[in-house]
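User: I'm curious whether this sequence folds into something compact or stays loose and floppy. Could you predict its structure so I can see for myself?
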Amino acid sequence: MTTQQRFEHILHWFEANMPVAESELSFSNPFQCLVAVMLSAQCTDKRVNMVTPALFAAYPSPEALAKATPDEVLEYVKSVSYPRSKASHLVLMAQRLVEVYNGQVPDSIDELQTLQGVGRKTANVVCAVIWNQPTMAVDTHIFRVSERLGLTTNSKNPLQTEKQLVRYIPESVIPKAHHWLLLHGRYVCQARKPQCDNCGLSSYCRYYNAR
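Assistant: Here's the prediction. I'll summarize afterward.
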């Protein structure tokens, strides 16, 4: 099976078996999406969704968040991972949004990465989720699943994984493919105990067939 054929089979399986694939973070506008994605770094979506309702109620806009202190924001996010640094990043991010972008979340990866605490993965997620752009954010789940399935080979870091994936995935499919791979890794192809016997992709999976 060629790499192209492997991609085609796997993407077809996902389309047939997971026609709806969306972020599990809760948000209602681009600003809230950006905040939630920043908080989700090395933290579960479930935990983030527990803290954002109160956070969004207290700071419903970039302007409101920009006026807060990191210590004030910390009280709302102290149960997520790395709360102190995230609280500081959120305030600085909001201040730059107000000062440079008139309170509007930019729609380009490069501009998003000028915001404090926003790296390539976060920028890719926001562009894909909010504007349906063909950007592939690679987290630990996608990095692992892509290598196990054989979509990537000897990828050393998320950027290498991203480049190999976007080479073969059609642009129109990339935003959904991000969620396909992420959710598959979160619930089926787990790090310690992959549920291979319950996986519909086992016949295409390099990891499964090499056991």
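Summary: The chain has a mean pLDDT of 96. The CA atoms of residues 10 and 166 lie 14 Å apart.
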